[in-house]
Write a structure and sequence with these properties.
6-stranded antiparallel β-sheet; 5-stranded parallel β-sheet; single chain; alpha+beta; globular; 18% strand
Length: 483
């Protein structure tokens, strides 16, 4: 818990067998006299305006105990089918433990598996029934879940470093939607739920764009709930502009946040579009010294030395840090749009070599892999700053609709420099300024100037290649951690 206290700045709890111990900070929990072979702990932060509650959450009998990182979006629908259940709070996540209770017979893993198709949202949770712990995560993999064992311990956590600290070296990642069962016999994984690839449907660009607008609006509405003041990580491009426009249409206050070097492409583009949209815009201008100071923090947070992950993660880390300092606890991102609508230039090569069928296959595969490639990084850097990440493009309903759209409506041909055509049509329908609608994709590490800055720091520190430099930063950050 202490190793992951940055993930929950407001309270902590540890459940040893059936005895719960709570405190405002993990290192303040008094474990004197606690005895047991099973421990379940969590840290959490409280969203202003939301009901303050402590985990674990319990079912009606007190037998099932649940801890969760994240939130479900359709609790009202679930609760409507649980009218004979006694709820102790009004928080959305309590619906989960009662749903599992309803499906519980003899097998906790099976009860969890039956319950999962009813849940919409981004989550990783664990349930304890006094005999075993069953853990799972959402089918897209927005929320992380790692697990492992050694000769003495079986464990799981939201970050690998917590397990490394315990001496568990072979840390594995639970597949999105997977089921993890932990007992004194060790760890077992099984299938829970997974994304189902839909068939492509025939439609015009206008029809597809209109349906996409409706589905995105509902996804944003579910994730926004009753939040009144939120941030949007803003590059000035079409993805984040659409998200900002939909949030505003739902009546919430939107603040756009952009991070980059003075004169960088992202800063200039975002400033122009934010002015056209008439939204409040906050720019965090970086210096080389800032990047040097952020690097060990980002490496520690994402637990990786991969140059691309660090270059993309650093500006989002700074964005979340600034939003948190301004009192904002929720940040929306356009993550997933490029994979769904063919935003990356590499898709042109796929189209040229394999045609539209091959492109469709590649887009689907990238969605299946997005958790490991992008979401682990993005979720880590935002949560490290006490900010909850929302990614409406990766709502399961949006994924479904996007994958029914023929890829020829996304990329016209192998020379299409804009790409994401159907999404740009949706943006036009939302009356987003033409400069954002027609702005070409530029990767954040280049648009912000971060890539160039890290190269300069590598040379400054005597390294020819940034990979070697960042590996040295990683080794220094985790020098005292047994892995």
């Amino acid at each position: 818990l202490v190793e992951m206290k940055h993930r929950g700045l407001d309270s902590a709890c540890i459940l040893i067998n059936n005895e719960a111990k709570r405190a405002e900070k993990p290192d303040e929990i008094d474990l004197y006299g606690s005895v047991g072979r099973t421990a379940l702990g969590n840290v959490q932060f409280t969203i202003p305006g939301k009901e303050s509650y402590s985990q674990p959450l319990e079912d009606c009998t007190g037998r099932l105990k649940l801890i969760i990182d994240g939130e479900i979006d359709n609790d009202r629908e679930i609760k409507s089918g649980l009218l004979n259940h006694r709820f102790q709070t009004t928080v959305s996540n309590e619906a989960i433990v009662h749903l599992v209770e309803k499906n519980y017979a003899l097998d906790l893993a099976q009860a969890t598996r039956i319950s999962l198709p009813n849940l919409l949202g981004t989550y990783a949770f664990a349930i304890y029934d006094g005999k075993e712990i069953v853990a799972t995560r959402d089918s897209v993999g927005v929320k992380p879940l790692y697990f492992g064992e050694n000769n003495e311990l079986v464990g799981f956590a939201s970050e690998r470093k917590a397990l490394w600290k315990l001496g568990i070296r072979n840390v594995r990642t639970l597949a999105p939607g997977g089921i993890l069962s932990l007992s004194m016999e060790g760890c077992q994984t099984s299938e829970g739920i997974h994304l189902i690839r839909p068939a492509v449907k025939s439609s015009t660009t206008e029809e597809a764009a209109s349906k996409l607008r409706e589905t995105l609006y509902e996804a944003v509405r579910r994730k926004l709930k009753d939040f009144q003041n939120v941030a949007v990580a803003f590059s000035g491009g079409v993805d984040s502009a659409i998200i900002a426009k939909l949030i505003a249409a739902l009546g919430a206050k939107v603040t756009l946040y952009t991070v980059g070097f003075e004169g960088s492409y992202d800063v200039m583009a975002a400033t122009q579009t934010a002015k056209s949209l008439n939204f409040n815009h906050v720019v965090r201008l970086l210096t080389l010294k800032d990047v040097e100071e952020y690097l060990p923090k980002v490496v520690y947070t994402i637990e990786d030395a991969d140059p691309m992950k660090i270059e993309i993660g650093l500006p989002l880390f700074a964005t979340a840090e600034k939003a948190r300092s301004d009192g904002i606890r929720v940040i929306f991102s356009g993550q997933g749009s490029d994979e769904l609508f063919g935003g990356y230039s590499r898709y042109l090569r796929v189209l040229e070599e394999y045609g539209y069928d091959g492109l469709q296959n590649r887009l689907w595969q990238d969605i299946l892999e997005i958790s490991e490639v992008n979401l682990q990084r993005d979720e880590a850097v935002t949560t490290a700053n006490g900010v909850e990440l929302k990614v409406p493009f990766l709502d399961v309903n949006v994924i479904h609709i996007a994958m029914t759209i023929h890829p020829s409506l996304k990329i016209q041909d192998q020379n299409d420099k804009l790409r994401k055509r159907v999404l740009r049509k949706t943006a036009e329908m939302l009356e987003i300024p033409s400069e954002a609608v027609e702005r070409p994709k530029k990767a954040v590490q280049y648009g912000s100037g971060i890539d160039k800055a890290i190269k300069m720091l590598a040379i400054k520190n005597g390294y020819k290649h940034i990979a070697a430099y960042l590996k040295a930063v990683f080794d220094q950050v985790f020098a005292d951690l047994s892995r």
